[in-house]
Records
---
Amino acid sequence: MNILDKTIESHPDLNILYNESINLLATLITIPSFSGAEDRTADEIESHLAKHQINTKRKHNNVWCYNKYFDQQKPTILLNSHHDTVKPNEQYTRDPFTAVVYDDKLYGLGSNDAGASLVSLISTFIYFYAVKDLPFNICLAATAEEEISGGNGIKCILEELKPISFAIVGEPTNMQMAIAEKGSMVIDCTAKGRSGHAAREEGDNAIYKAIRDITWFSSYQFPIEDSAPQPVKMTVTQIDAGMQHNIVPGCCHFTVDIRFDHNYTCREILNTIINHTVSSFNVRPNILHPSNIDLFHPVVVAGLGLGRKTYLSPTSSDQGWLDMPSVKMGPGESARSHTADEFVYIDEIEEGITMYIRLLESVFKYGA
């Protein structure tokens, strides 16, 4: 799909990469790739890399590859982003699977989260792929199931990747560096009462019990030093109860999304919940743990030298699976993720490719 043709005379090679990236993203937008069903976008990514004579490996819907002149003696950098998306919400006014450029914006589901990062990292990998004298190796991994923290995403290939020194995880950050990221945990709660007739004083309304617990979840603050950011954020995101209007519900189910930093462990958070609520709960598998990187790590130093800012990210990503130092960084804006009529600016993709390339070139000076 060729929806854009822009010429930058001073950088013809980069111009090709820019246009390829935008056209690849436009194609990916047209292919539904909900978490767990990304097989066709994985096919498209493999096909795109094959056009550049790049051999890929694949497990489930995860696709990865290495630079042409891989050297076991050199450190390896992982470039990772995901190609799955959430489902479009009901407020879309545009077809989420039609890629349209309007006012220098590329519209479509997954354009911002995290298609722009993905195609920018793919082009960055292609830019370095055939260079013989790189001081490091590069591994590109386009992975699945990020949006659901699924077991068939990056988690399932980590042991198959060659040893990684550090990683750049592509997510929309306005090309700033998230040097720490909160962990993520989801619990499904059940408030139990006793069913009865709504017209009589009988039964024990489970909704009222759930409301008391939900109020606690919405207002409790975990102790922390004065002026420090809140270490734990708990948000009730789903609720379900009742059979019909005249029956007192004996059961109410609700779900809580929990984001947390290094100040509290999962066990400490769960113990606090147990001590303050009456509902029973189950913890969903695939907990994402907080991540961070030393401020003096070469990639952070290189980024600062390029005018990038550092910050603590409140959202979680596949960083939570990685046991090596990593930064989260990519084109686009986090606030646009999962919103109706999702879009990314064309020049954000171009900036993403350019900045990723400059960042890796700068790492040469500081050592990987």
Note: The mean pLDDT is 93.
---
Amino acid sequence: MNTVPDPASIVIEPVSSRAQLDRFIRLTDRLNAHDPNYIAPLRMERRQAWSAKGNPYFEHAEVQFWLARRGGRDVGRISAQIDRLAPPEPGQPHTGHFGLIAAEDDDAVFAALLGAAEAWLRTRGCGRALGPLNLSINEEVGLLIDGFDTPPMVMMGHDPRYAAARIEAQGYAKAKDVYAYLCRSSDDLPEPVLKRIRRGVPGGVHLRQLDMKRYDAEVATLTEILNDAWSENWGFTPTTEAETRALAKALKSVIDPTLVWFAEIDGEAAGVIVYLPDVNAAIAGLGGRLLPFGWVRLLWRLKVRRVKSIRVPLMGVKKKFHRDRRGQLLPFLMIDIGGRRAFALGYERFELSWILEDNRAMRRISEAIGADVYKTYRIYEKALG
């Protein structure tokens, strides 16, 4: 076993077995046991997401997990990863990522964890560490720095208040903030937006919902649209079709096809929006376990009682249509048609996330429909000497 010595007798243990991975997953349940807004992730889902067998991300990335132990018990965890598909940033050294960081409120533990990740990245030629990314920039990103008073929605993170100061104490500084916007079903769309929508769908524009009979083909179309739409965003890394397919497979049982809409312009796929029921609200109280009876409660909450919150994790319009009047209207048309369906199904809280702080176009759209920032997540960076 390779260890990183620490004055406080902290041992850094590389994760190499299923038993260690299970400890890695369960650690946050203990660390956040007294936080009423923490929701334990489903352990079976985390095992799949954080293993090469279940997550195609590992096909183009090198990944290592560690546990921090002191006095015979786990006190922290972290990952380090290098994504071979991540394009270089102009003016920046070769960049590696860290993520999945969680630890007791102790500078020594954070120092040992980040030191292990930095050493691993440095030996692989990285001159800069960026994170937390859990694991990809296309998954959960950033550390929660504002908005601790509400639970996270599906596929969004939640961190203790002390974590930011502990990471910053190790020499990390802000690289970028990302936002989660929230609006409620009781909010009326601003009149200028309503006027645009009331004009009707422009000629050549067709809106259609997800066709579950062509699910795989629809996933391929979604991947094509989003990789084009997001290609100029900071930190953009293309999502492989295998990654999108794996996510779509995992979410197939909870996706409502009437809440996923494609937009076409002159017969070409031009935009897409996904409204995803907040699975987190359904798994709260299950303690990360679906057996023996957790799956019954989950199905009841999702299919019968229905959760009241919903998230828009994916929305985009191809770049070629950005200057087209019809293309500029697509986000509002898709938000409207999906939102009206969600309202009819009883959803009351709508999150649009995550959105880069300098993505002015998406922020303007969010604010135009009456949404406000209610959570902020920070991505940190540090030069590796």
Note: The first helix runs from residue 18 to 31.
